[in-house]
Design brief:
Layout lengths: L10 H6 L5 E3 L3 E2 L6 E5 L7 E9 L4 E7 L3 E5 L6 E11 L7 E10 L1
Parallel strand pairs: 2-8
Antiparallel strand pairs: 1-3, 3-6, 4-5, 4-7, 7-8
Length: 110
């Protein structure tokens, strides 16, 4: 038996957490603006350093791009059809505080 706080999140806790960013269109298809997708960061602040990393399903980094606005267009010219993991890393500008990482799946279907 284990007693005390084990810091386990329940599925109810996970469902109520707001994602740190949104990707659209997702999936990226021929009918949508297939040359780019948009990364929207609702809680954007110029006092934070934000970086988007796109990795394929093998874990290889395909793209790394700093985010400088609340809405950022990201080119899909180097992305083949497939599933990618997009990771947003948010660092406080002055170096104090915790780095936040949030991930979402992106699908490219052209």
């Amino acid at each position: 038996l284990f007693y005390g706080d084990n810091n386990v999140s329940t599925s109810a806790d996970l469902q109520t957490q707001k994602p740190a960013f949104e990707l659209y269109p997702n999936p990226v298809t021929n009918g949508s603006a297939s040359d780019y997708f948009t990364v929207y960061v609702p809680d954007f602040s110029v006092r934070q350093q934000m970086t988007l990393t796109v990795q394929n399903m093998l874990g290889q980094t395909i793209l790394t791009q700093p985010l400088t606005m609340q809405r950022n267009a990201v080119s899909t010219s180097e992305l083949a059809n497939g599933i990618y993991i997009c990771t947003l890393e948010i660092k406080p500008e002055n170096g104090s505080g915790n780095t936040i990482r949030s991930q979402q799946k992106l699908v490219i279907e052209r």
